[in-house]
Structures are given as C-alpha cells and as structure tokens.
C-alpha cells in the first residue's frame, strides 16, 4: 500500500477498504452498495422521528383529511325504503303546493310525513 492511500473499515459491512488520496472524500462506506443501504435506513429513521413529533402527527392528519375528502367514499348507506319514502314525500309536497292533489295522495302525504318524522336521524 503506497503512503498516499488511506485504509479504512466500512461502517456497515466492516470490510477493509483502500482509497487513494486523490479519490478520498472522507468516505466511510465501501463501493458494494453499503452507502445506499445506509442512506435509505437513515431517511426511514428520520421519517419515523418526524411522524412521532407533534408537527409530524398534525401534518399527517391534515394530509389524510385531504386524501379522504378526495375519495368520495361512503361507508354508511341509507335505507332504500326511507329513500323511496323521502322521494314520495317530495313528489306529494310538490303536488300539494301546486294545489293538484287527490284525496288518496293527501292521506298518503300524512302517513309519509308521520313516517318521516318518526324515522329521523338521532345522531345530529
């Protein structure tokens, strides 16, 4: 080994490496990919630290809120019977408002209105 070379041990795989002074940039890893693997591990650890911080948790929560708002996913679907009753109520109300309704539809209107009032959502 010439006097101008530097001998070091790779910080990851512990292999002995010789680097000439002209190529020496203070390397601590060998050329077999240890630098890339260590860099990926370092980035992963930094991301985990950030996620555990207060700022990281709030940023992640906001990002997920925006993501969910773009998805338009509905997890709770309403009852089909209730949606039919609601549309029937709307059509009866429209005919009632215009003054064109029959005796049968006014009875149906009262029944459907009563059904709508008793099946309202208690969560709000």
Helical residue percent band: 55-70%
- Widest β-sheet, arrangement of strands: 1-2
Order of helices and strands: EEHHHH
- Helix/strand-derived category reads mainly alpha
Query: Cα-atom Rg, whole angstroms?
Result: 35 Å
Number of E strands = 2
Total discrete domains: 2
Percentage beta strand: 5-15%
Shape: rod-shaped
DSSP helix count?
4
The rounded distance between the terminal residues' Cα atoms is: 80 Å
Which residues sit in consecutive blocks of at least 5 with pLDDT less than 50? none
Give a quick account of the main beta sheet: strands, pairing sense, barrel closure. 2 strands, antiparallel
Mean pLDDT: 79
Could you characterize the architecture of this molecule?
With 124 residues, the chain is mainly α. The protein folds into 2 domains: 5-71, no CATH class; 80-118, no CATH class. The chain has 4 helices and 2 strands; from the N terminus they run E-E-H-H-H-H. It has helices at 34-52, 54-71, 80-98, 103-118, and strands at 5-9, 16-20. A two-stranded antiparallel sheet has the order 1-2. A hairpin with a 6-residue loop joins strand 1 and strand 2 (16-20). Helix 3 (80-98) crosses helix 4. The longest helix has 19 residues, at 34-52. It is rod-shaped, with a radius of gyration of 35 Å. The N and C termini lie far apart (80 Å).
């Amino acid at each position: 080994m010439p006097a101008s070379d530097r001998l070091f041990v790779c910080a990851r795989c512990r292999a002995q490496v010789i680097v000439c002074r002209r190529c020496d940039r203070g390397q601590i890893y060998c050329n077999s990919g240890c630098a890339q693997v260590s860099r990926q591990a370092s980035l992963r650890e930094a991301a985990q630290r950030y996620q555990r911080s207060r700022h990281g948790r709030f940023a992640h929560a906001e990002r997920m809120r925006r993501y969910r708002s773009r998805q338009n996913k509905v997890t709770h679907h309403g009852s089909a019977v209730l949606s039919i009753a609601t549309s029937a109520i709307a059509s009866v109300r429209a005919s009632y408002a215009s003054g064109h309704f029959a005796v049968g539809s006014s009875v149906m209107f009262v029944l459907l209105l009563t059904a709508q009032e008793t099946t309202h959502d208690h969560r709000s």
